[in-house]
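User: I'll paste a sequence; please echo it back and then give the predicted structure.

Assistant: Echoing your sequence first, then the prediction.
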Amino acid sequence: MSGLDIFTISTVVAALAVINTVALIMVWRINPTVPGLGIWSLSQCLHISAWLLSVAVIQGSLQGPIYTLVNNSLNLASMILLFEGAMRFRGFGHQATRRWLILAGIAMAVGISILNKEAIIRRYIWHDSICMVMLIAAAVTMMWRTAPHERIVHGMAAGFFAAMAGAAAWRWSVAVMLPEGEAFPYRTLNASVFTLVALCGLGWVYGVMLSVNMRVRQQVLAVSQIDPLTGLANRRQLESAMMRALARQRRGAGAFGIAYFDLDRFKSINDRYGHTGGDAVLVTVAERLCDFLRDSDNVARIGGDEFVVLFSKLATGHDLDRACARLRQAVEGPMVLGDDVEDVCISLGAALAPRDGQNIDTLLNHADQAMYEDKRRRRAERQPEDGAHIIPFPPPDEKGRPRGAAFN
């Protein structure tokens, strides 16, 4: 193959590397919160610098072992950063701990390049060995402990990492098995390796784009199912949980129940303390709920001061009654608001599936009606009150703080 051929191939490969780098940097700038993209962008910048240097050396514009040394050092550093990007993207390990290992690895790569800058066979053996290890490690990282819905998109990037490792392994095997005294087929072999690496580079960048797109969609979906004030699930996520519970119940998993409650006199709290005070009450109620719930239960804020708790693994209506009694005890109680203490009380209704309904709307409506019945009964039992219900400060806790403090 002529010098022009290898130069043309190297130029095309360098152009593809530029396209990959620009595309990856754009994805990173559009999604700056996705971990790993910045490191991958830096890796591609080093990679493209090495390719451009190769083109200049092949063209004859740059000559001497120093340029080979720089080229190899940039390539090896880019491979190390590529693996680090995969680790960060998947959220494995501690970045601070690995930082020194990365710097040590890059320093070692530069040292190896210096020692082998004039020994072409030894240089390829060392260079391609490190590339193979880093690429295979990146491929394994992308696939390690992936969820079923992640395997296809992560598998695309991992597959192209493995293919690039295969190209490096091909050149490494040629260098290892080359008979003594025979010239290394530098131009013909590198023309094929460069082409494979360029095509795989396009593939892994595209695979990373798909993985980033899936992650961002998951984040948007998660945000759309979370109440921003309390961090609890919202109505959409509650309905999804109830659909799953109904499906399990139809398969014989047993009954489940819901408790629907709101806060008594919440409007008067908002009027007296403003929305800041109302929000503080809602956040404290959410914290009490999270402390109370079992791992198998779900809780959601479905609007204003209304909450729904889904109790799983119930056998009878008596189990639901006992769970609701514990829920009331956990949520109700004094709460510090400014210089006052509010006695937080709730009105609560419940529904048991399948006894009170076999679909979401029926269960929620049944529990809602039961809640308003409870509210009317509690109002009839109470004496009429003017304004907010203020009670004395409760005794401090073991640390000297008022019990149930919401804000100071």
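The chain has eleven helices and seven strands. The radius of gyration is 32 Å.
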